[in-house]
Each structure stands twice: as structure tokens, then as C-alpha cells.
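Margin note: ligand = magnesium ion.
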Amino acid sequence: EEALDRAYFGCPDRSGDGSMLPLWCNIAAVSDIDQVLQNDGGGVGLMRSEFLFLGRQSAPGEEEQYNAYRQMAERLGGKPLVIRTLDLGADKQVSYLGLEKEDNPALGLRAIRYCLRHEEIFLPQLRAILRAGAGQDVRMMLPMVASLAEVRAAKIMVERAKTQLREQGLPFRQDMPIGVMIEVPSAAMLAGEFAAEADFFSIGTNDLVQYLFSADRTNPNVSNLNRPYAPALLRLVQHVAREGAEHGITVAICGHAGQDPLLLPLWLAMGIGELSVSPASVLSLRRALSGLTQEDCLPLLEHVLGMQDTDDVLDCLQEFRSRHA
Ligand code: PEP
Ligand code: MG
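Resulting structure:
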């Protein structure tokens, strides 16, 4: 199997009938770029920047972050690099940011919520990302966004960072694209409104399913509710994909569901614009994609979107895959 996948190195991310579905990678460190290149990933669709902040005694400053982001972009040699701003809180905690102990950290002051209240952490990161984008295809995306006000506030901060850099004469990417992660149900519901404020969407299915079903993604007692085959999740993703298309922005998926070969025909049929996956799954997904056509996938999508039960969806997807593998 692996040799068959390897044969797809250098091939386009294209379905059997010619639709493109770019396969990019999720990474957490500069050293992960090797894996992206070794597996022929088209770029980085999710750089989890919080990993630069974990396992240390103090926050990395602007220069340290700039160096890391810059190295990633340079090693990618022109392939896009989407840097997600700090997504700390919930399961990812550090001692030094003064995060208060909360009863429900997954529902608490995390990610963009924290950043908007801690300029001393957020501004240096925004500056580092903007600077890393000078002459490079670096893009920025915002995690855990729940309201339009958060996007607008973050964009004001980005403008502040740009003004500072301009005054200091430091080079940066003037037209830095700003994407919004869709991983909170409130944002998914208002996808049309968010699309007017965002340069692209990336759906974080790990959190979206957790918040949609009120089922902790790390709690095995409720893992039965935490499944990406759930009709409620699929219908919501379809809604986001449609709203994104209507507003002319790319809708990516960067959660784990994006690399599930059972779900690939649905993403193709929905017109998802990019999947960001683990580097190790790029070539097998590319191979699977080459065997799919809209003619087969569109009726499958219509069929599963009409279902009520998660297990029925799973059965149906397995049956489809056994016929198309
Ligand atoms: C997600 O929630 O799907 C996601 C990609 O982000 P993370 O897994 O880092 O929360
Ligand atoms: Mg998430």
C-alpha cells in the first residue's frame, strides 16, 4: 500500500474527473517541515503556534517567533504557510501566562479570547507573523472565534501592528490574508457574515464536533458523541462550505476529519477548497482522491445529508469506500 501511495509523489491533488482538492499539512514546529516536503504536501494549512509556547518558563518573544516562522516559510520554498495565532487554554496550559484556574477551561478564556485581552502577548506574535510574511506566502488565521466582534477586534490589532512596523521601517507582508477558523457553532451558523470579514475559512472539526455535541474531545466516556460522521456536523460543514463559496472565499478543513479517507468523497462533493492533514496522510489521500468523481460523490453526499443516525452514515461511507478503493 505504501509503495502505491509513494507513486503519487509529484502528482497533482486531483480527482478522477479533474476537480482539484489541495492537500496541505498540519505542523507544530520548524522541524516538521521536513515531513511536509518528504510527503509532497502542497503547503502548511495549520501551523499550531502554541507549540512554540509549551514546555518552557516564559513566552517566546517577537524575535524568537519571527525566526521560527521565517525558517518555516523559507524551508517551504514558496509553498503557503498558514500560521494560526496562539490557541492556548483548555487542554494546552502553560504556567507563565497567568491563566486563571477556571472550572470549564474549554469554555473559558482561551485562544483569541485570551489574546484580545493580552496585548503584550498578542501584538508581538502578530508582528512576528507579519514580518515573516515579507516576500513569502505567509497567511494568518484566528482560532476559536465565536463572534464577529472578535474578528473585528483582531483585525484592528493587526492594523496596529502594521502601523508600528511601518514606523520602524521593518519589512512585512502588507496584504497579509487573515482567515477565520470555524470551530465554534456560533461562527458556523453565521458563516455568511463571517465570510464578509475573512479572507478564508478553515474548519476545525475537532473542536466543532466537541462544541456542537457538548462532548469533551478528550473524554472517552463521551467519545460516542464525538464522531465526525454525525449528520448534524456534516450538515453544518455543508452550510459553511456553501456560504464560503457564495462569498468567494476558500473553505478548508484542518481538523482530523479532513484526513479521514471515508469522508473524502463528502469533502470533494461539498467543494471544500483544501484539506490540511498530517504529512503522513498526504500521499494516501492523493491516491484515494484520484479514484473519486463528482458523479459518484454528489449522490453519496445527498444521501448521507438526509440521514439521521451517525452509524448509518458510517455504514454508508464504508460501503462506498469498499466499492471505490
Ligand atoms: C480543530 O479544532 O479541529 C483544530 C484543527 O484545532 P486543534 O485540534 O488544534 O484544536
Ligand atoms: Mg481547535
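DSSP finds 14 helices and eight strands in the chain.
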